[in-house]
Specification:
This protein is an alpha+beta fold. It is about 15% helix and about 30% strand. It starts with 16 loop residues before the first strand and ends with a strand.
């Protein structure tokens, strides 16, 4: 769709009024029914299954199999009713291209006849006959005015605008880009991206209030096409979440369970969230990072064995994933990196963690780092899950002291991912601290033989499934660390990883009650984020320091190279490139430390 075409039929005045000549004479098809009567004031049409005729102005033309195979029409201002619950517009489905034969375009006054149906929630006319109306020489002009839509909505439904021409005068921010490449969709909201409720409010009623506001604040901006992976997009491919769109005019439609705006004109798209080249400075002599690898599985370790149980579907796809992650780690310049979602296949020469370290130390571009090693806890695997956590470190700046330790007790027993703790010593100062990498149970509903009962049920408070297990794991983790499991005799602990819990949820509160300080939330704003789910943003990943270590942390940041990007820049996407952007679905976390 070319958004550089004229907006609609004629140049629009400030009031967005569209002018056309009023018809003369009687209908040549049948007695006419008003569109607001067809739409009714409910979710479905009272004329469903009936054949009717309408007379209205064409407001949008999406004819053709590469678009929506039809067009939208709307009553003139002089014909609207006084019921705000009824829409004055309707979609006309025209797979037979009768509108093309009649040369129907935007601004035409037409008489159309066909059957009314509800197609997956959208009231539409299946076109059987159409005729353009021509005005007499001395006919008066009538107008059609675009309705102004402001977010967040005051009302709880967009049904009253279905099929109508709308103008959105606000600056709107992209809050979701998940379906951009596949369906040409963006989700937009006013002022800023939408938060995960429990990232900014307590679980329960406070989170429910945030969610209610979220539901009135988001709308889908579509591309006027029903094609999967369309050939062209009305937005640049490099657009990112939090970029701004100004001056949208379009038609309110419905499909795939959501109201969606089919755009006719966009005044301006502003790149207000450009790709970051490097992480923000965090200070300190040591840099500690947490990186979710989004299922780093290396097949059989010899270039075969794909598709693996998770991750890349082919060796070529794995090579792309590998290149992207290596580039990100190289640019982070971290001394220790906690890895999440790496294949749990041990620590031998064919293992995933060995493969990653080898790739870092032997970069294909000839600038291999040669400095990284990985922590081997001395066990065949780490627990019984398909994925595990891991640690890699720069052996020129830091060294492990003693053996890495894990626990398989309680909340970390069979069926739950085990943590990994390792004490390190800074080579230049001989100062020590212990890093603990954690990946708590996800929020997903139970699968297979799992049973989520008691406090593991989704209680509707915003914390999802398995909150009980995650909270018990957090409490047991701090109890375990208080026993000095690595024998470090040093109180400096840093817990990092994917907690599958947002800022105000019970597991994070449990860690804070034990004295650990969330370094990201203490240094960044409440709307900071590392992950997006269904257009809602929050910190699913965390770095927490023990009281004694907190004063030695010089800074903390989140490097937004992943979550803001379209998934199709990822290793299994159609736009993927061997760069660091969208190397995972989580953003890396980085903290600076000066041990003393």
């Amino acid at each position: 769709m070319d958004l550089n075409l004229s907006i609609i039929f004629v140049l629009l005045a400030a009031s967005a009024a569209i002018s056309t000549a009023a018809p003369g004479g009687e209908s040549t098809i049948a007695d006419l029914t008003m569109i607001h009567a067809i739409q009714g004031d409910g979710q479905s049409s009272p004329f469903q299954g009936m054949k009717v005729s309408i007379e209205a102005i064409v407001t949008a033309d999406f004819q053709g199999t590469d678009k929506l195979e039809g067009f939208f029409v709307q009553e003139e201002d002089s014909d609207i009713d006084d019921n705000i619950e009824t829409s004055e517009g309707i979609y006309i489905y025209d797979p037979g291209r009768l509108g093309v034969k009649e040369n129907v375009t935007r601004g035409d006054l037409v008489i159309a006849r066909g059957h009314i149906e509800e197609f997956h929630g959208l009231t539409q006319m299946n076109l059987e006959e159409i005729k353009k109306k021509k005005a007499g020489k001395n006919e008066n002009k009538s107008t059609l005015t675009a309705h102004q839509l402001i977010l967040p909505l005051k009302e709880d439904s967009l049904e009253r605008y279905e099929g109508m021409l709308l103008m959105l005068p606000q600056d709107l921010v992209i809050t979701d880009i998940e379906n951009f490449s596949a369906y040409g969709e963006l989700a937009i909201s006013p002022q800023s991206r939408l938060p995960v409720p429990t990232n900014v409010a307590k679980p329960g009623a406070p989170a429910a209030q945030v969610q209610e506001l979220n539901s009135r604040s988001m709308i889908i901006l579509d591309d006027g096409s029903g094609r999967r992976f369309p050939q062209s997009y009305p937005f640049p491919r490099t657009i990112r979440c939090a970029d701004t769109i100004q001056g949208i005019m379009g038609i309110m439609s419905y499909g795939y369970g959501n109201y969606r705006l089919e755009p006719l004109n966009i005044s301006k798209i502003m790149i207000s969230n450009p790709r970051p080249t490097n992480p923000e400075p965090v200070g300190g002599r040591l840099r500690i990072a947490s990186l979710n690898l989004e299922n780093y599985f290396n097949g059989n370790g010899a270039g075969r064995g794909f598709p693996s149980a998770r991750g890349a579907r082919s060796y070529d796809e794995f090579e792309l994933q590998r290149a992207k992650i290596i580039q990100a780690i190289t640019d982070m310049k971290a001394d220790v990196i906690g890895l999440i979602e790496i294949e749990n296949d041990g620590y031998g020469n064919m293992s995933a963690i060995h493969d990653l370290c080898h790739g870092l130390n032997a970069r294909e571009d000839g600038i291999g780092l040669g400095d990284y090693s990985f922590v081997d806890p001395g066990s065949p695997k780490l627990g019984d899950d398909l994925i595990s956590v891991g640690l890699i470190y720069n052996r020129t700046t830091i060294r492990p002291i003693g053996r890495a330790i894990t626990t398989s007790m309680g909340a970390f027993s069979s069926g739950n991912r085990q943590p990994l703790a390792q004490t390190f010593e800074e080579i230049s100062t001989l100062e020590r601290f212990t890093i603990v990498v954690v990946h708590l149970k996800s929020k997903n509903p139970p699968g297979g033989d799992e049973v989520a009962d008691g406090d593991n049920r989704d209680c509707g408070d915003g914390q999802g499934y398995w909150n009980g297990d995650r909270t018990r794991a957090a409490n047991e983790l701090t109890d375990w660390l208080s026993s000095d499991p690595t024998g470090s005799h040093d109180p400096d602990y840093l817990i990092l990883g994917d907690m599958n819990s947002y800022r105000n949820e019970d597991p994070i509160m449990a860690l804070k009650r034990a004295g650990y300080v969330n370094q990201i939330s203490s240094q960044l704003a409440s709307n900071s984020y590392s992950y997006v789910f269904q257009g809602r943003w929050g910190e699913l990943d965390h770095i927490l320091a023990s009281p004694s270590l907190t004063g030695q942390v010089t800074g903390a940041s989140i490097w937004h190279i992943n979550s803001d990007e379209s998934p199709d820049f990822g290793y299994n996407g159609i736009w993927s490139r061997p760069d660091k952007y969208r190397c995972s679905d989580h953003d890396p976390l980085i903290a600076g430390i000066s041990l003393s």
